[in-house]
Amino acid sequence: MWFRRDLRLSDHAALSAAAETGLEILPFFIQHDDDLEDWHTGAASKWWLHASLESLQRDLGKQDLRLILRHGRASSVIASLVKETGASMVVWNRCYDPSTLDRDATIKNSLRQSGCKAESFQGSVLFEPWEVRTGTDSPYRVFTPFWRACRQRTVAPALEQPRQFRSFSGEWPQSDDLDSWKLQPSKPDWATGLRETWEVGENCAHERLGQFLDTAAASYKQDRDLPGLDGTSMLSPHLHFGEISPRQIWHAVDAREPNEGSETFLKEVGWREFCHQLLFHNPALPDKNLRAEFDAMPWRDDPESLALWQTGQTGYPLIDAGMRQLWQTGWMHNRVRMVVASFLSKHLLIDWLHGERWFWDTLVDADLANNSAGWQWVAGCGADAAPFFRIFNPMTQSRKFDAKGTYIRTWVPELAALSDRDVHEPWSASPAELLAAGIKLGETYPEPCVDHGAARQRALDAYKAHVSTSNNGSKD
Ligand SMILES: Cc1cc2nc3c(=O)[nH]c(=O)nc-3n(C[C@H](O)[C@H](O)[C@H](O)COP(=O)(O)OP(=O)(O)OC[C@H]3O[C@@H](n4cnc5c(N)ncnc54)[C@H](O)[C@@H]3O)c2cc1C
């Protein structure tokens, strides 16, 4: 049983199938060496992976099973394990990243050719990404009709954890020591904030879901946009690593009284499905503009501004709050993800690919489908994207969604003493107000790294000149 991004024992089609065969089971996990993959696991994701594998090891241990850890090229590792153990069958749940699908197909073929059975099963999605199609039998590129079509389908029940496993009775093959993979940072250890924020593993994922459904779910529709509240589920890393499946979420929601909040929540889980099918049908999504006319965009090469953005030193409080939340916790609120992504690709006119890479390395929920679709959506070059001229105004967003500055004060504490009015825009505060709040602009907190109006105009001009001759900039 090859564990991948499905680090759980319940609603696990491959594991259930393996248990049903009555064959002895030997679970294993392969860490691909970084140089074997372009989008190899980012630093924050590695931290999560370590904790999640520990949790899976514990859960398997309770079933008398051990998780064999190996690193290297999946095809060679599997061939070697089959040889060492005499396995007659290898099973796994599908992942839908384009390179994984190709690799898995090759592995399946070569296993079968060598006389070993190989079966893959539906992975951590509600529907296979090729299943939901338009009336003209093409993949959806727009979310709303996609979701309408999903809502008309039946979601298969979630599978219970198998009651019994037959554990491998031979000599267990050698396993790497998890620590030897060095997934966790040591010098420096930057993971304190991650440890303080997250509890990792299948049980914790279900606890988090239960807690969310008991508390925030009912008001999710109104609160999900307010970054200063715990208004969303924070299930994204659990979902990414497959500690919980979307089917389990779906049925847990379904089992409760329906309300507007939980319907909106399911719709967000639907966005995840949408992104997965988008990546499946557009394998270049992580690396190329879906709308090719954006290839002409004159992105600026500006490493200094990129570094200010990455480190939360742009001088725009909402942007800096978001980027610091990301750095410290490995997660950022969705509303703020949209605003910081817009700031990078529009105010700074830096190619969204740089932002995507930074998110990839720093998010614990870094997910090829959701991340690339999210960036393309905000940058305006993706399917069903917000138009490029929809440039988020960081101050307006801040006043609207963080009116009292709760979020900003948490992540940019040097601005905490400013009034609710000025905290969104410290450069507008009077010298006396700045003095009273203990702020020296340019010293204790940066001056804005670009002028909002000028940056906005620069982005619109670049867009008009290089991408569109038909769209006019609107005052969004
Ligand atoms: C630029 C950008 C980059 C992003 N990168 C990622 C990423 O790497 N990984 C990731 O999981 N999400 C990403 N998102 C989507 C979204 O921001 C996160 O899924 C969400 O903030 C996670 O918090 P939550 O679990 O509390 O979400 P909730 O609001 O509780 O939603 C429940 C689940 O629905 C899914 N979901 C919610 N919103 C979206 C969305 N817009 N697109 C796709 N799925 C969604 C997630 O799996 C989430 O866990 C990105 C969004 C943007 C704008």
3D structure, described in words:
- With 476 residues, the protein is mainly alpha-helical.
- It folds into three domains: 1-123, HUPs (Rossmann fold); 126-154 and 201-281, Serine Threonine Protein Phosphatase 5, Tetratricopeptide repeat; 292-466, DNA Cyclobutane Dipyrimidine Photolyase, subunit A, domain 3, CATH 1.10.579.10.
- It is 46% helix and 5% strand.
- It is built from 20 helices and seven strands.
- The protein has a three-stranded parallel β-sheet, with no helix packed on it. A two-stranded parallel sheet has the order 2-7. Strands 5-6 form a two-stranded parallel ribbon.
- Strand 3 (28-31), helix 2 and strand 4 form a beta-alpha-beta unit.
- It is globular, with a radius of gyration of 24 Å.
- The protein starts with a strand and ends in a 10-residue tail after the last helix.
- Mean pLDDT is 95; it is low at 470-476.
- Flavin-adenine dinucleotide (FAD) is lined by residues 224, 232-236, 239-240, 268-269, 271-272, 275, 334, 337-338, 341, 359, 363, 365-367, 370-371, 374-375, 378.
- The site of flavin-adenine dinucleotide has 27 residues, from helix 9, helix 11, helix 14 and helix 16.
